[in-house]
Design goal:
The complex is a heterodimer of chains A (about 525) and B (about 250). Chain A is of the alpha/beta class and about 525 residues long. Chain A is built from 20 helices and 11 strands. Chain B is elongated. In chain B, about 35% of the residues are buried. The chains are: A alpha/beta (about 525), B alpha/beta (about 250).
């Protein structure tokens, strides 16, 4: 592809090389550690579900039990496998026996190591096969009924009642949406467990629960058949239970997941050591399940300035790309995030937004880039907001973005009403259709405002990445280089859930999921 | 600008002629998009006090519901002359003026804490007021000479906020609440006042809240010293705080 921006691709290569080293450096730490939620994910993938008599999820009960009795360093799979070989019980039966205090996993007599491993592998293969079937189900459905054209129109529903969400989601699909995100309760990212069952009274959204996933998935499958397009479902695999939610999403055939450790560190104050370990397993699962991840770089621009800090977005995209590749998640599933967040009063601001979007497209030319709408400079003036969103839509079609998170004219006022969503879908469809091949027709002036802006952002991003390579990821975050937010290595939530693996630690899923030829 | 004389005891909407009452309305009704639906929208507008309602646009929203845009003439009037509103009564100073005011009248650095409390993770409002960069060309409090501003960020528990306020001997606390579903912001804000009263520090600290659904009247009702709605800049909050500090000193 010929660069319209006259970008220096040697610089891109340098930035990628440095990013890879940064990711591998963090990966060295990741490989030596596990976390409570990684272990609970393994438990869930073995098919253990449900809650005990006081409502604690069984995956938490089992992992806490082994942690308290001293043994989690070996990995939960080992203890479940050992108990199964000894008692002949299924994982679910074992979990229930632990919950009712009939069974202490660490006191079960040690069984033959080979037999334990064979049992674990047998469970894991069944589980992985189920997820693979879900992936094929998605691919076959798209093959059979088709899908929307890119940029996919992405809208949110946020009623707080999952049954109401399902109705709104169907309405949005009929109006033309391709991806429906069910907004998650604001506080869930800080919960170190995944709530159980359907949510009917959520604050600021519903919980990401397996039951909620199932309910909305069914509604979208129904409406997809009706409108003749596969409708993708999006939720949030972020916060303290990243990999568990990834596993639930893989099992219930979600299609898109927000998934970004940096976002959690900066904006939810989650401990960085914890969330990097969690992110790795979650990306392995997402990658295997064919789920598109969305990264959260766009959020930097809600706290930092979009003009001055544009290079931090690009730098983070480069690093996120490498974190994803290490976890076996291919470029086709990397919805790297960026946003249209410059102050509308900025002279030539549109040109700079255009430069950023085109640059991102050229550098990550396979990724279904996730483009986020104006939020920071949206006001109660809905008429102006409608125009801001039109400009945003224009850039998206012009630069061939992958996922268009539709801006709402009532952003900054309330969560979207039924007609807000309809108006914005209509806006996007109008612009996308009216300007469909604009990008094919227009080139940019050599050394003009747009070219120079993109070149400058790439240079600054490369410089920043090379600085991070020298200082390390952790130090960089401690210095507040992303989003202007400083976080310490041992601060934030969830550090207590990080565990150093012992020599015999075993997680059967990593190899099974990475090995499979997609 | 009006050709006629405005009667301030009987104010009504203006389209292009004084007292024409011209009003635009839009809403969705849970009914199909047809002639009968249009008539229903007109009748509803009439009940809202709209005369000669005309539906200029009706669109099926895909679930058997219809979106309407209407114009008509509002028949109601209000008496502008007798209206009184509760608002923050402070002359707004510029950043430079605030800095000078602190230097001349307070003579010490003032400490202002900011936080988005409870489960609320939306920091765009508190960031606009607190952060160095500010918002829309208006610098935030971190930039102010004479102000020691600390933005604690999102999802701060009320207990944590109070502990920090005691530790730093804060002069003022700014609380931002954006999520308002089921009035969660009111519960959060009330809880903070109760905890501060229990700690015996409520009267020592200027307590301010802000957010899209906050206004001064609601803030006063909840036991705050001031409340600021959308579109507020840092200098407005700063002006209130420094004036209040001096006013309290002189009491």
């Amino acid at each position: 592809m010929k660069s319209k921006l006259n970008l220096d691709f040697d610089l891109v290569k340098r930035a990628r090389g440095a990013s890879k080293k940064i990711a591998l450096d963090v990966q060295d730490f990741i490989d030596l550690h596990t976390t409570v939620t990684v272990e609970r994910t393994i438990v869930r993938l073995f098919g253990i579900d449900g809650v005990d008599e006081i409502g604690t999820p069984l995956p938490n009960v089992v992992v806490e039990h082994v942690k308290e009795n001293g043994g989690i360093e070996r990995g939960i799979a080992f203890w479940l496998g050992n108990a199964a070989v000894h008692t002949g019980k299924t994982p679910q039966e074992i979990a229930e026996a632990v919950a009712s205090a009939e069974l202490n996993l660490t006191r079960v007599p040690m069984q033959d190591k080979e037999a334990i491993k064979a049992r674990i592998d047998e469970w894991a293969e069944i589980s992985v096969e189920k997820i693979w079937e879900k992936r094929l189900e998605r691919e076959n459905t798209i093959e059979r009924i088709g899908e929307g054209e890119k940029p996919y129109l992405y809208v949110i529903v946020a009623t707080g009642n999952v049954y109401e969400d399902a109705i709104q989601a169907q309405a949005a699909a009929r109006q033309g949406a391709d991806i429906i995100a069910v907004i998650r309760s604001t506080a869930q990212s800080l919960l170190d467990y995944v709530p159980y069952g359907a949510t009917t009274e959520g604050f600021g959204g519903t919980y990401a629960t397996q039951e909620n996933f199932k309910i909305v998935r069914k509604a979208l499958d129904e409406v997809g058949e009706e409108v003749g397009r596969y409708i993708r479902l999006c939720n949030y695999c972020s916060g303290l239970c990243m990999p568990e939610i990834a596993a639930m999403g893989a099992i219930e055939r979600l299609d898109v997941m927000l998934n970004d450790a940096l976002y959690g560190i900066l904006f939810r104050d989650i401990n960085m050591q914890r969330t990097f370990v969690d992110q790795y397993f979650s990306r392995v699962i997402n990658g295997f399940a064919g789920i598109i991840i969305n990264t959260g770089e766009d959020n930097y621009l809600t706290t930092a300035d979009a003009v001055e800090e544009a290079h931090t977005v690009l730098a983070s995209q480069f690093i996120n790309e490498q974190f994803a590749l290490v976890a076996g998640l291919p470029e086709e599933q990397m919805g790297l995030g960026h946003a249209f967040e410059m102050n509308p009063k900025e002279e030539n601001g549109f040109l700079w937004e255009l430069a950023q979007a085109q640059m991102t497209r050229e550098i990550f030319y396979v990724s279904p880039l996730k483009y986020m709408p104006p939020t920071k400079f949206m006001t109660g003036d809905i008429f102006k907001g409608h125009v801001q969103n039109s400009l945003f839509n224009l850039i998206s079609i012009w630069t061939n973005q992958g996922i268009q998170l539709l801006g709402m004219l009532t952003e900054a006022i309330h969560t979207p009403h039924l007609h807000d969503r309809a108006l914005m879908i209509e806006n996007a469809k109008y612009v996308f259709n009216n300007c469909k091949d604009l990008g094919e027709e227009i080139e940019f002036k050599k050394a003009g405002i747009i070219q120079k802006r993109a070149q400058k952002v790439l240079e600054e991003a490369t410089k920043l990445i090379e600085e991070i390579e020298r200082n390390g990821m952790y130090n960089t975050i401690e210095q507040g280089k992303f989003g202007g937010v400083k976080r310490s290595r041992t601060g934030g939530k969830g550090l207590r859930g990080v565990i150093k693996k012992d020599d015999e630690y075993y997680n059967p899923f990593i190899d099974l999921m990475l090995r499979r030829d997609v | 600008m009006a050709a006629g004389k405005i009667d301030y005891t009987k104010i009504k909407p203006y389209g292009d002629t004084l007292n024409d009452g011209m009003t635009q309305i839009s809403f969705t009704l849970p009914i199909p998009c047809d002639e009968k639906g249009i008539e229903a929208a007109k009748q509803l507008a009439a009940k809202m006090g709209i005369e000669e309602p005309s539906v200029v646009h009706a669109k099926d929203l895909g679930v058997g519901y219809t979106y309407f845009i209407l114009y008509g003439k509002c028949k109601h009037t209000v008496n502008y002359e007798v209206i009184k509103v509760v608002k923050v009564e402070t002359d707004v100073m510029s950043r430079k003026e605030v800095e000078k005011f602190i230097e001349q009248n307070i003579k010490k650095e003032i400490v202002i804490l900011g936080a988005c409390t409870g489960s609320d993770a939306h920091t765009v409002g508190i960031d606009a007021i607190m952060n160095m960069k500010g918002y829309d060309g208006h610098y935030g409090l971190e930039r102010y000479k004479g102000v020691d501003a600390l933005n604690m960020g999102s999802q701060v528990e009320n207990e944590e906020l109070i502990a920090k306020a005691i530790e730093l001997k804060a002069d003022a606390i700014l609380v931002s609440q954006i999520v308002t579903q089921k009035d969660i912001h009111v519960n959060n804000l009330t809880n903070l006042v109760e905890l501060m009263e229990a700690e015996g520090i409520r009267d020592d600290i200027i307590l301010i809240c802000g957010g899209p659904r906050i206004n001064h009247e609601l803030a006063k009702e909840l036991g705050y010293d001031a409340g600021f709605g959308p579109g507020t800049y840092a200098e407005e909050v700063a002006s209130f705080v420094v004036n209040e500090i001096v006013a309290r000193k002189n009491k």
